[in-house]
Amino acid sequence: MDHDIKAIDWKTLASAGVRGVVLDKDNTITLPYSRTVYLPLVNSVRAALSAFGTDNVVVFSNSAGSADDVGFAEADSLSAMLGIPVLKHGGKKPDGADALKAHFGLPDASDDGLASYAMIGDRHLTDVVFGNANGMLTIKTELLSTENDNQVASIMRRYEAKYAAKLVADGLSAPDHPLANHPDIVTMLSTTPPPPKP
Ligand SMILES: [Mg+2]
User: Fold this and answer.
1) Claim: this prediction has a pTM higher than 0.85
2) Host domain of residue 10
3) What's the pLDDT tens digit per position in 46-61?
4) Ligand 1 centre and the CA of 26: distance in Å?
5) Has residue 191 got a pLDDT over 70?
6) At 160, which CATH number?
7) Which of 45, 49, 89, 132 could be a cystine partner for 99, CB 3.0 to 4.6 Å?
8) CA of 188 to the centre of ligand 1 (A)
9) How many domains does the chain have?
10) How far apart are CA 92 and CA 33, in angstroms?
């Protein structure tokens, strides 16, 4: 998707059958290392919370709440600042599915428990791999800013984008997801406007 989360109509996702959303933090809803939602996205985040309820929206970051976050202090303060729960997973995407399932109260045995949740993030190797590996509806957004971006992330991002483009050119595509074919979602995520109705 060539847009940020503003292009996502949360109510459309919900009415199509998505039960909740998992949001990456850096460059998805905040500028890198910022503890407040990026101002142009505040209304969109509010709309997500109102469409799904606070219990069904969570921030899943590879910094706050990860193995690097001692005592989950950053997750707690971030959660207070953002007004959204921040997952305390103690790992790094693409790991973390069990913590996410536990957060949403999904039974362990249910392998497709996350299938009705959407993963939204700006990175192929973390967010998209995680979402697709766990059968989620996965939406990749464009990064918000290169300012303050983590150096490793910035280098990786370039390689990921090139590699993903090559895989697509070689005929590989994302795993099929039933919700990805829902006409309302197809229309919403399409970068070209839908054809006019006859
Ligand atoms: Mg990110």
Assistant:
1) yes
2) 5-189
3) 999 999 999 999 999 9
4) 4
5) no
6) 3.40.50.1000
7) 89
8) 22
9) 1
10) 16
